[in-house]
Design a protein that fits this description.
The protein is α+β, with helices and mostly antiparallel strands and 479 residues long. It folds into 2 domains: 4-10 and 30-307, 2-Layer Sandwich (Ribosomal Protein S5, domain 2), CATH 3.30.230; 326-478, Roll (Thiol Ester Dehydrase, Chain A), CATH 3.10.129.10. The chain contains 10 helices and 24 strands. The strands form 6 sheets. The protein has a 6-stranded antiparallel beta sheet. The protein has a 5-stranded mixed beta sheet with strand order 2-3-9-4-5. Strand 4 (66-70) and strand 5 form a beta hairpin. The longest helix has 22 residues, at 290-311. The protein is elongated, with a radius of gyration of 24 Å.
Length: 479
C-alpha cells in the first residue's frame, strides 16, 4: 500500500493549482484550429540527457501541425510531431529524422493537445524539452501567459466508425466511437502493485485540473538499469516520484490519490497527439506504455487514411512495380498522410533553385494537399520586382499552386518518374501582395484526375487570408 502519511496530503488543495482565467478560457468544443497568441518560453534540465535547455513554443499557421526545431544544430532542422517520425519508445517517446533526434516529447505534446492547440513550433537548444517538475504544470503556466489564438482553418477530428483495438503483451488499448474525447486507464506494475484507475473527458479545464500536474514516476529497482543505459541523468526527487516497496519517495505529498495512472493518461494524450489530428472517441487503456501508445497511433493512422486512399481510386489500382525506387517509397509516405521536406519534394518535382516554389508538404488528406513556401528577402526576383518595394510576382504564386498540384498528381505509384506539365489556368485572382517574410500556405484540391489529365483548384494564403487563387490544368508526360 502507499505510505498513508503521504496520502493524507493527497486530498488537500493541490499546491499552486493553475487557475482557469476568464481571459484565457477556451471552448471545449472548438470548431476551428488554434495556435498560440505569442511565444511561450521555459528553461530547465532535460530528464534523460541532464543538459540545460531553453524551450520556446511559437505560433504556427493553420494546417501546419506541431513541429520541433533544433536551434542548436546547423540549419535549425525540424521534425514534425507525427508517428512516422517515432524512432524509439524506451521510457519516453523519441522523434528522429536522419541524424536529428528529439527525446521525451510526450509532456509538451500532451500540453498542446490538452489545450486544443493544433499548430505550433517548439524550438529547443538541446535534444529534449526540459522536464520541469516531472509534470506539465509549468508548460501550462507559460502557455497561459502566451494565450491561445483561433485560426480560420477548420478543425477535422478523427472519429472512428467502429471500435479499434490493439493487444500488445499485457497492454490492451481500444478506441470506441464517442461524441467527445475521453481517456480511461488502468495501470499497474509487473507485480500488480499500485493498481489504479482513472477516467476523464479531455477538455482544457479537465486537462489543467485533473491531469497536467501528475508527475512522472518509476520503481526503485528500475533506477540502476536506467542509469546503466545512460538515462535519467537529470532525474531527481524534484522531478520524479520514486516507488520503493510500499513507500512513495517524493519531496511533496502526492498531488492526486491516483497520480500514477493520471500520469499514464498524460503520456497517452501526448503520444496520441502524434496522429496529427484531434480525436473524437473514448480511449480505454490497460497497462499502457510508450511503445504500445505509438503502435496504437499507427493503427489509428492506417484506419484514418483507408477511406482517403479509396477516394483517390479513380480507376483500377496499378500493379505493383517489380523494382522499388525512392519515388515509390515517397508515395507510400504520403499515402499514410506523412509530410515531405524540401529534399523529398525535390525527389518528386524536377524544379530546382531558383524556380522551386514549394519548401514542404504539410498535409495530404484525400484529394486535398497543403504546401508551404517561406518567402525570404533573399529571393532573386526581389532585385527587380520591385527595387525599394519588394513584392512576390503573382505568376510565381500561380507556379506554387501548380507545383503543389503536381506533387498530388505524382504521388500515385503509376505516375512516379513522370513530369506534370502546366497547361492552363482559369479564374485567376490576386487579392493581396505577398512580401518578404511572409509564409505562403498553398492549399490545393484535385477536382479531376483521369488518365494523364488533372485539374485542381488552388488557394494561396498568408496568415489565414487568401492572397491568390486559380483553377489549374495539367498533363503528365514521361521524363
Amino acid at each position: 500500500m502507499v505510505n498513508e502519511e503521504l496520502l493524507i496530503g493527497a486530498n488537500l488543495p493541490i499546491p499552486n493549482r493553475l487557475p482557469m482565467r476568464a481571459a484565457f478560457c477556451v471552448m471545449d468544443d472548438v470548431l476551428n484550429q488554434q495556435t498560440l497568441n505569442g511565444p511561450a518560453r521555459f528553461s530547465g534540465i532535460g530528464l534523460h540527457g541532464g543538459n540545460r535547455v531553453n524551450m520556446t513554443i511559437l505560433p504556427a499557421p493553420g494546417n501546419s501541425g506541431i513541429a520541433f526545431r533544433r536551434m542548436d544544430l546547423e540549419g535549425k532542422p525540424e521534425i514534425e510531431a507525427r508517428v512516422e517520425n517515432v524512432i524509439e519508445t524506451n521510457r519516453s517517446t523519441i522523434l528522429g529524422k536522419g541524424n536529428v533526434k528529439i527525446h521525451t516529447v510526450e509532456h509538451v505534446l500532451a500540453t498542446l493537445a490538452g489545450y486544443g492547440i493544433d499548430n505550433a513550433i517548439v524550438e529547443l537548444d538541446a535534444n529534449e524539452p526540459p522536464i520541469a517538475d516531472g509534470s506539465s504544470r509549468e508548460f501550462c503556466r507559460v502557455i497561459q501567459a502566451a494565450g491561445i489564438a483561433p485560426l480560420a482553418e477548420r478543425r477535422e477530428a478523427f472519429a472512428p466508425a467502429e471500435p479499434i483495438k490493439l493487444e500488445a503483451g499485457e497492454t490492451v488499448m481500444t478506441l470506441f466511437p464517442d461524441d467527445a474525447y475521453k481517456i480511461s486507464c488502468t495501470s499497474a506494475d509487473k507485480l500488480g502493485r499500485f493498481t489504479q484507475f482513472f477516467s476523464t473527458e479531455i477538455t482544457p479545464g479537465a486537462w489543467e485540473t485533473e491531469l497536467s500536474q501528475a508527475r512522472t514516476f518509476c520503481f526503485f529497482e528500475e533506477i540502476e538499469h536506467l542509469i546503466k543505459n545512460n538515462l535519467i541523468k537529470g532525474g531527481c526527487l524534484e522531478n520524479a516520484v520514486v516507488i520503493r516497496d510500499d513507500a512513495v519517495l517524493t519531496t511533496e505529498p502526492l498531488r492526486y490519490p491516483e497520480e500514477f495512472v493520471r500520469h499514464k493518461i498524460l503520456d497517452i494524450l501526448g503520444d496520441l497527439a502524434l496522429l496529427g489530428r484531434p480525436i473524437r472517441g473514448h480511449v480505454i487503456a490497460v497497462k499502457p506504455s510508450h511503445a504500445a501508445n505509438c503502435e496504437f497511433v499507427r493503427l489509428l493512422a492506417a484506419q484514418m487514411n483507408r477511406p482517403l486512399r479509396a477516394a483517390l481510386a479513380f480507376g483500377p489500382p496499378p500493379s505493383a512495380p517489380k523494382d522499388r525506387d525512392p519515388k515509390a517509397a515517397l508515395v507510400e509516405i504520403m499515402d499514410r498522410g506523412g509530410t515531405m521536406d524540401a529534399e523529398q519534394v525535390m525527389k518528386i518535382l524536377p524544379h530546382r533553385y531558383p524556380f522551386l516554389m514549394l519548401d514542404r508538404v504539410l498535409k495530404v488528406d484525400g484529394n486535398f494537399i497543403v504546401g508551404m513556401k517561406t518567402v525570404s528577402v533573399n529571393e532573386p526576383y526581389f532585385q527587380g520586382h520591385f527595387p525599394g518595394h519588394p513584392v512576390m510576382p503573382g505568376v510565381l504564386q500561380l507556379e506554387a499552386i501548380a507545383q503543389t498540384a503536381g506533387v498530388m498528381m505524382l504521388r500515385r505509384a503509376e505516375n512516379a518518374g513522370q513530369i506534370a506539365y502546366f497547361m492552363a489556368a482559369e479564374n485567376v485572382k490576386w487579392r493581396k501582395p505577398v512580401l518578404p517574410g511572409d509564409v505562403l500556405m498553398i492549399e490545393v484540391e484535385m477536382t479531376r484526375l483521369r488518365g494523364k489529365l488533372g485539374k485542381a483548384k488552388g488557394v494561396c494564403k498568408v496568415d489565414g487570408e487568401i492572397v491568390s487563387e486559380a483553377d489549374v490544368t495539367f498533363m503528365l508526360r514521361s521524363e
